[in-house]
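[stage:ingest] chain + small molecule (NDP)
[stage:ingest] validated
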Amino acid sequence: MRQVVILGATGSIGCSTLSVLARHPEQFKVLALTAATQTSKILAQCLEFQPRFAAMLCTKAAAELKVALARHGCATQVMSGQQAINELAAHPDADIVMAAIVGAAGLMPTLAAVEQGKTVLLANKEALVMSGELFMAKVQRHGTTLLPIDSEHNAIFQCLPATAQQATQPVTLAQMGIAKLLLTGSGGPFLTRELNTLNKVTVAEAIAHPNWSMGQKISVDSATMMNKGLEFIEARWLFNCAPSDIEVVIHPQSIIHSMVQYTDGSVLAQLGQPDMRTPIAHALAFPNRMSSPVSPLDFSQLANFSFSKPDPERYPNLFLAMAACAAGQGATTALNAANEIAVAAFINEQIRFTDIVRLNEKSLAHFLNYAARSLDDIVALDFEARAYAQQLVRTLN
Ligand code: NDP
Ligand code: MG
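[stage:predict] done
[stage:export] tokens:
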């Protein structure tokens, strides 16, 4: 029986993880659930899965949860605050930690799990975008098993040679006979929208992804394709490769989740429904396989697959992220921070959709050559870049 901690249990990935775990009670026990503020959602999860611990970032939400659990006679122990979340991520009884907090807030608890050599299932791509070099060094040092949940990275991982999947030392693409990683993306809801109307995009339009159901932040990132940019940076670290080894391909149907091109001309792809419960089940069961609630692909029902190159005019955020990736860890930390502020400001209707890239561009230009080597540097730069971006939000409206 393996014990699982879910960081960000009430979110889209957290709920999908619980839906997979519910099918396999003989293999997994939920040890702890964490969330920020959503008391009623985590209450229902605690009643169903009876974890030993639940932690809320918000102290008031934790107090409410405690009362509600007592009323239901549920023995889950409630904790609160950032430190409690970090502690649960590193709990001695935890075997698997699902890192599914959104944004930079996921960095510290994810690193806490990495430092304890847990099996870490990584959905929180922002952690790698901020700290890739340092993060991967810790993975090595602590013998952590790191399994990608992001569907593209999970697909690439599945297409790697089995020996490389289980290697304890970093392997280069050349050693695996790989020429290129092909990172696919749907292009989001505005693939064909008139460019001169993008400044009129509403929040509801931006979060209505054509293929995937996800949290708000990543949905907006998918609409700007910053999500693919963050994934580009994520892939560079996860697969120990150079930015020039990664090519982004638009594939609007979201059935091919990414591909690996080998030097002999073979291309391996992983296909499936656009449903995160497939990569989650893959990672939970790795190196074995187990069932998930996802319906099988029916090829007789699939329309044609199409592919194209991303257009820099339509998706400038993708190209900004690629530039940041080439510049280094300081640039990617600052861009990630700016983007979180910009997306939140767009969701709060303080800035327009097209202002997101303006704000990101200005922030990246400002912080492009900042170095961020230690964790302290990264945290300080994240803070500074957020303040800078907040200031830009004020000047933009
Ligand atoms: P959601 O917004 O749906 O969920 C976020 C979760 O994190 C919630 O449980 C939330 O708690 C919690 N949370 C938010 N802020 C904090 C904080 N400051 N401290 C502690 N917990 C916090 O996000 P998603 O599930 O969509 O995404 C999670 C991560 O997975 C992101 O990094 C995303 O990029 C990545 N990902 C998501 C995919 C998807 O399909 N959704 C696909 C691939 C990657 P509460 O509910 O209480 O606010
Ligand atoms: Mg993805």
